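Ticket #4471: structure export looks truncated?
Reporter: QA, pipeline team
Priority: medium

Steps to reproduce: submit the single chain below to the structure queue and open the exported record.
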Amino acid sequence: MSWNDPSVKDEWMAKNQKIFGPKIVDGALNMQLAIEEQVAAVASRIPGARRLTPPDTDEHGFPKLRIKDPAEAFKKVQNEYGGAWVDIKDMARCTLVVEEETQVSTALNLLKHHFRAGAGTGIVFTEEKIITGSESWNKAGYSGWTIFVSKQGHKAEIQVNTPMIMYAKSLPEFTKTYENRVEEMKKRFPAVPGGIGHKLYEVSRSPKHEQSKRDAHAVASKLYYGYFRSSATPYDPADEVLGHLALCEVIKLGLVKDWHSIPIRPRRAGVTEPPGRSRSYGQPPPRPPWLPPG
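Actual output as written to the record:
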């Protein structure tokens, strides 16, 4: 018998699922509570920082586990880890949100120090992953600062992010902690609605969709996240051109059906309006040269 024999591989994956799947899920429940407590402790040391946890209710208001959905985890384990449940890193996860991007480096260093071996938490830092959104391979423009930790073989993911990107990525997670800041974000980023970033990213990377659909979502994602990253502080207006372009793309994808956009008055260097004329609703500005035709 050989590992190249599909029946042998299928049998191994079935046994792995039966033995390790339930153990990883049970361990993730305890790990979730542990990292939530420890990340809250780190957040208390950073001015304005907050800990965000995954929602504990679904879109209909019914209770759900804060760990990764076991059915989704099963698919991920089969597709990305060859059936090895012990390799999944994000069954338990939470986010440390800092007010400004300038605080991200501080937050990462504090987390790594807090979870260092011998610190007494029982949870140990194992690795970090930093994505800026500008990488050549990163067609969707997704960004993130992430560390991974482990405790007795159970792993967890801790992200560091800003309120702007969290608002763009997931409204349920954002409103759970920042319910009184939704209107603030709408005023600061009026061109597009928040909360559709994760959908754009997931479709752009999912092999179950046609490549053309993945590419279209990647283009929209890059513009969408670029718009939210264009305002580094509350005193720096978001790039209206990026916002309008992002709106056009998400409307084409059917993700936004009725959204009140803003008149476009580009503030980019070298982009000016003809005298006596301004762009109005529904008139997109010229597409940047790096965008595909469409």
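Status: closed, not a bug. The export was complete when the record was re-opened. Leaving a note from the reviewer for reference: The longest helix spans residues 6-43.
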